[in-house]
Structure formats: C-alpha cells, structure tokens
Amino acid sequence: MAVLEVVSYPDERLKRVSDPVVQFDEALQSFVADLEQTMRASPGAVGIAAPQVGRLQRIVIVDVSSVINRNRTKEQQNSSSNGCMILINPEIARAEGRVVGREGCLSVPDFTGNVARAAAISLTAFDPAGRRHEYRCKGFEARAVQHEADHLDGLLFLDRLVSPRELFRRKIYRSI
Amino acid sequence: MNQSEQRTKSWYMMTVVGKDRPGIVARLTQALFEGGCNLGETSMTRLGGNFTIMMMVESDAESTRLQGLVGPVADALALHVHIDSIQARLHEHTEPNVQISLYGADRAGIVAEVTGVLAEAGLNILDLNSEVAGTGDKPVYIMMIDGYAEGGIEALKSVLERLKARGIEATLTPIATLVG
Ligand SMILES: [Zn+2]
C-alpha cells in the first residue's frame, strides 16, 4: 500500500470525465487500497475520488464516520453513516431537497465555499469485487458522496459555489 | 515571480468609493494591470447605491505612483481612491466555525450592541454583511456574520439569549467544512 500524490487544480485531469471501471481485478483492489490510504493520510478528509490522484476512473471512497460522531452541525446530526463506502461506477438514482453547506477540497488548497447539495440521495455502485450495491445517504454523508461523484464528471465544488450575498438573502428573508 | 521581484514588490490596500455605474471594476483593474500591479483578495459590493471596493494590490511602485495609475479612471468615473501601505500575505485564511444571523427593529447602536456581546463571548468576526430592510418608517436591521468562536459555541449561545431579551433575534449555525 502507498499514499499517492494528490493533484491540485489547475491540473487538467481534474476537469476531465472519468471512464467506467470494466475490470474488477487485483490491480483495481490494490489501487483502491492505495486510494483509501491516501484519504486517511489527508487530515480531515471524508472522501476522495480517483481523478484526485490522477487516475481517470470512476472510483470514489467516502467515509464520514469519524466526523458525524462529533455531531456538530444539523447536517451532521441528520447524517446517515454507511461506514467506509467504496463506490465504483456510482450512479445517483434519486436526489431530494437542497441544503447549503461549506466545502473544501484536497485538490483546491486554501479555499472553502458554500455549495448547495441534495439533502438525500439514493445510489447504486459496485464494490471492488464487482458486486452491485444500493445505498441511501442523507445529510453530511450525502454531501460527501455528491462532492466525490462530481470529481468523476470533471466538476469541482468551485463549479457550484453559492454567492455569499445570495446565501445571505435566502437565509435571512426565510427566517423573517 | 523571481527573487528580485519578490524583494521590491509590496502590498497596498486600495479603497475606492463612487456612485455605482457599469464598468468601474473593469476599467480600474485594467489600469492596474497595465501599470504592472497584481491583485490579491478583494471585496467589491454595492452599498446604498454606491459602489465600494477594497482590494489588495501588489506593486513595486510607491503609493503616489499607484494613485497616478488609477487617476485618469477615477477622474472619469468620479471615484474616491484611498491607498494604504499594508503588511499582508496571501494564503492566510482562517476557517469560520460558526455562522450567526441576526435581525431586529433598527435602532441606534444595534451593531455596537451585537458585536460587543459577541466579542465578549470570544467571537472573532471574519466576515460581516448587514442590510437595512423593511420600510422607511419601520426599518429592520439584518446582519450575517461568519466567525471563529475562540471559546467554543456554548459561550456564544448564552449571549444570544441575552440579545433576544433585548429584541434581537439570532440564529447560530455551527459550520463544519466538508473536505474531500
Ligand atoms: Zn474534492
């Protein structure tokens, strides 16, 4: 196992659409192990996508279990926890609701911003052995899956920023 | 940027105020670009029909020459320009850990009152936006603050109760930044 180098924007690989995985073999499993180790070696990271280490394949890992136990925000309190999810060729089938939350990215150092995401999603994905699974995610975990799935389509959270002023108006005038 | 450039360039804070009209940002920044300046972090917004700009400008010029660079644009658009030499660095962001929105009937001293109790409770304000909504005879003052709670969230919650007793509604939302 090895910690891989995380590429950062403007590396053009972060803006490309990744290819589906077709071979569920030992090479894939070894890469997934490295990708997970890379995520664990990155302080605070709850997810990682293969393009972030320069590999343009539809593979992401999400694990919010360490964070949601701290129960800080509403989105974390409401979060599902499917443990460590290794999602290969993930497809988000349904998405409901809209929540704004703050995001940063291993591939975009020194910036965080507000992003609107679906509050709850259901998805299908394959595991490294090629078995298909269905998941339901909500709250913080749903946000993490959507952030990582975006990487597979060449999208960064920078592509989805909500302007502070817009956020201001939406939040304030709703509360009044 | 090479070493010799790094030694001679320094940061300025350029503040610009004027009646809002199209093209202010484009023409000012073009003049700075042509004068060999770099821009850092900026905040530009419309306040009460005025356009206001605060921007970090990096230049090897003295502030008087910097003033000269934007002079023609400032004159043409009737802008007031103020330049301060500053100690500054990029990549020095502090992540907010709490967002607080507040509102109440507008009255003299409301901002001082709110920010005073928040400071006492250990809040370091990183970003504050406020607006006056409602109508001329019933104005409502609205504030939205991103900050870093030095002493934790609980201390802040208790002072928000105090504000509520004085007619200021407040909502505190912890911020947890997702990293992935
Ligand atoms: Zn990311």
Q: Any descriptors?
A:
heterodimer; A: 176 residues; alpha+beta; Peptide Deformylase; globular; B: 180 residues; Alpha-Beta Plaits; 2 domains; 4-stranded antiparallel β-sheet; binds zinc ion
List low-confidence stretches of chain B.
Answer: 1-5
Work out the helicity level of chain A. 25-40%
Please state how the strands of the largest beta sheet of chain B are arranged side by side.
Answer: 2-3-1-4
Q: Based on helices, strands and strand pairing, what is the structural class of chain A?
A: alpha+beta
Number of helices of chain A: 5
Number of strands of chain B: 9
* Major sheet description of chain B: 4 strands, antiparallel
Summarize the structure.
Chain A contains five helices and seven strands, in the order αββααβββββαα. Chain A has 176 residues and is α+β, with helices and mostly antiparallel strands.
Topology at a glance:
The complex is a heterodimer of chains A (176) and B (180).
Chain A: H1 26-40, E1 47-49, E2 59-62, H2 65-68, H3 74-77, E3 85-96, E4 99-105, E5 108-117, E6 120-126, E7 132-138, H4 140-152, H5 164-175
Chain B: H1 3-8, E1 10-19, H2 24-34, E2 38-47, E3 50-59, H3 63-77, E4 80-85, E5 98-105, H4 110-120, E6 123-134, E7 139-149, H5 153-165, E8 169-174, E9 178-179
Antiparallel strand pairs in B: 1-3, 1-4, 2-3, 5-7, 5-8, 6-7
Bound molecules: zinc ion.
Residues 105-107, 147, 151 of chain A line the site of zinc ion (ZN).
Structure write-up:
- The complex is a heterodimer of chains A (176) and B (180).
- Chain A is an alpha+beta fold and 176 residues long.
- Chain A has five helices and seven strands; from the N terminus they run αββααβββββαα.
- Chain A has helices at 26-40, 65-68, 74-77, 140-152, 164-175; strands at 47-49, 59-62, 85-96, 99-105, 108-117, 120-126, 132-138.
- In chain A, the strands form two sheets. Chain A has a five-stranded antiparallel β-sheet, sandwiched between helices. In chain A, strands 4-5 form a two-stranded antiparallel sheet.
- In chain A, strand 4 and strand 5 (108-117) form a beta hairpin.
- Chain A is globular.
- The model of chain A has no long low-confidence stretch (mean pLDDT 93).
- Chain B is α+β, with helices and mostly antiparallel strands and 180 residues long.
- Chain B has two domains: 10-86, Alpha-Beta Plaits (2-Layer Sandwich), CATH 3.30.70; 98-174, 2-Layer Sandwich (Alpha-Beta Plaits), CATH 3.30.70.260.
- In chain B, the strands form two sheets. In chain B, strands 2-3-1-4 form a four-stranded antiparallel β-sheet.
- The two termini of chain B are 30 Å apart.
- The interface between A and B is medium-sized, with 37 and 24 residues.
- Strand 4 of chain A pairs parallel with strand 9 of chain B.
- The structure holds zinc ion.
- Zinc ion binds next to helix 4 of chain A.
